[in-house]
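User: My collaborator sent over this chain with a note saying "see what the structure looks like." That's all I know about it. Can you take a look?
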Amino acid sequence: MTGKETIILGIDPGTSIFGYGVIRIEKKQIQLIALGSVNLSKYSNHQLKLKYIFERVRYLVDEYKPDLCAIEAPFFGKNVQSMLKLGRAQGVSMAAVLTRDIPIEEYSPRKIKQAITGNGNASKEQVAAMLQSICKFKEMPKNLDATDGLAVAVCHHFQTSGRIQGKTNNKGWKGFIQDNPDRIKS
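Assistant: Without extra context I'll predict from the sequence alone. Here is the result:
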């Protein structure tokens, strides 16, 4: 990501609510392009939800023409059926992106939270608040699955640029502050 503009699509797959965020990186600066969520509760069965997820992701790819996609990896839970459904949603999302030959990176929920807030156990609200500061959007979305999708995109940028929340090329907070004066509130 040196010198040229890069567009990253971030996806938080889900079978109830699907979140996404699109950012542009130019000269290491993050610009928010799109942020949203899709409520899938109106679809009566899982197959219809998967079909709509595929169509929606393909629309996002065709609309924003990302250079790459970052997606949240399923987490391990106690409910096997929920994990299977989430894995299917992720797989369908990935298939939609891959039909357009766009590379995909996966990040665990913990890694995403760590990259954005410096705390792998941060709440959705903490992640959203930090993203509001980083991406400079005024109004918080009604559904925080939207900011979860955005978090995946920003996490990918931080991972590939060497900027991790709380660390900047291993120079610690002092180096982070020096490298990011625009992110310090007075």
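A starting point for your reply to your collaborator: The chain has six helices and seven strands.
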